[in-house]
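User: quick one, fold this
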Amino acid sequence: MGGPCVLLYGARHPGHAAGLIVESGFARWDAARVVAAFGRAGGDTLADFAARSFGGEPVTQDEDAKVFGAFGPRIPNDEQLARAPHNSDLNTYGMRLVTQLDILDQLNRIESRTLVHVGELDPVTPVGAAQEIVEALPPGIGRLEILADAGHFAWLDAPDRYWPVIIDFVNSCSPS
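Assistant:
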């Protein structure tokens, strides 16, 4: 949920940040778009697993693992996953909020330069979601970067191409 948080911050505090980075994010949950992206990534069976999983229906541990495994060419290992905060008590409630999210109408208030960065193979926050963000921003504010051959965890898939884009953007937002 980092992307929507960054976008809401930018909309609620226009011009406060020198720049915003939305990595693998969305401003409007579009279940059909996500399910279609999982279908492209792994076929109809995977699309069904994703539809049920993201729709709040029960999935088996194996089905859930297949959905997560399709997030991109590389996924975080157990050690990397262990570093992320977890609160399983919030999963159902949080996913319900995610599926209701639509903040596109607020993005026109953002005044900070905004990098919207996405892996071209990302099924959970597909390229279409990134394009939608940039289109909703005021003209000249958004910069869309699509990382070829990368998924949801683009920094793992192509670190040699990922980090230069991020560093260049941060440097371009820093005062001289």
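User: anything notable?
Assistant: The mean pLDDT is 94.
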